[in-house]
Fold this protein.
Amino acid sequence: MRHAPIDPQLFVRNRRRLMRLLPPGSLAVVNANDILPANADGTLRIVPNSDLFYLTGVEQEESILLLFPDADDERQREILFLRETSDLIATWEGKKLTRESAREVTGIRNVQWVSEFPKIFHRLMCEAEHVWLNSNEHKRAEIVVETREARFVRKVREQYPLHHYHRLARLMHRLRAVKDPVETTLIRQACAITKAGFDRVCRFVKPGVTEYEVEAEFSHEFLRRRGTFAYHPIIASGANACVLHYVDNDQSCQDGDLLLLDVAASYANYNSDLTRTIPVNGRFTKRQRAVYEAVLRVFRSSVAGLRPGVKIKHWQEAAEEAMAKECVDLGLLSMRDLQEKPEDPMKRPVKRYFMHGLGHPIGLDVHDVGLTTEPIAAGWVMTVEPGLYLNAEGLGVRLENDILVTENGPVDLMSDIAIDPGDIEALMAAR
Ligand code: GLY
Ligand code: MN
Ligand code: MN
């Protein structure tokens, strides 16, 4: 792994938190992700399973975590199963977890080879009453392949039809929403890497550079700091910024245009998520600055609104109302538009210019799991990302930071990344 070792006590605490939520007689299982096929004999790089990582720190393929807090044999209460390595695997793939190194990473004493799983699992299933299996319950997930976890669920339910089955995902979402201080530190590290990339890009951008050259500048800074891209970077000059998921990054940046950068780093599987919008030539025009400042005001009021007890849908509504007023001042909407209150929120006039969500939880996933219909709570980390997209004017502005919610008010984890338009211009002038 490229990141520095993580204190295994984080994973010990996380497992304890989960075990406290399980009723008596419960057995829970979490599987690693499959290595997905590409073309011919190619495969995609493994994406660690976020729940498995949260509970163990393990990123390795074919791993399985079994938790059975009431197991009669104390040694069977936490078991990690690993793919057994060999000289052949060492030659072709390199170092894998040994039983000893897995104990150090995870804090789990009982580490077995995965070939032992069927026998041990059967024995423990005979003792268990409730079985907690995992699935991807992210609201926007569109899953067209059967995942390793889904295959496991299908087979276990076929083999043991008389147990009581439960959705582990609900518990995982509740736990993962509230970040441990160690997790917040890792997110901060991801934010610091992102800042280094953004500062570098501000010194680099000028008329004529291409969007992919800008991507390369970020990449250089992220990789040398042990980070990776948290998601496919959006580097969108001019009207490209109005394509919300623009990822071609193949145009050249024109004098007088804005450049929207939705680019951030991940570190140790923890993500950050940043958007800045900068002028290609280093100076905002009057109109660009007016649109930028409108978005910045909504950004600031939305950061301030991230308080425990507030529901996300109300937080979003407040931002849309504020943005609608800004749109009137910018000549985009009329006063009559402000009075329109259609039942379908997507039909609100402001949605013509600000069509996406105001923010999302962030952590081990960029659009992290969480209980987004429940009130915001201390310990959540949320993005705040208002935007205005004026296709007719060939410009889009979005601003996005990552915010830790606390009882004492929001803590901006990206407060050291320039956002004030004057500061952006100063940073670009200092090249
Ligand atoms: N970069 C993805 C997002 O802002 O949600
Ligand atoms: Mn985001
Ligand atoms: Mn983003």
User: Anything to note?
Assistant: The domain at 181-429 is CATH 3.90.230.10 (Creatine Amidinohydrolase). The chain has a mean pLDDT of 97.
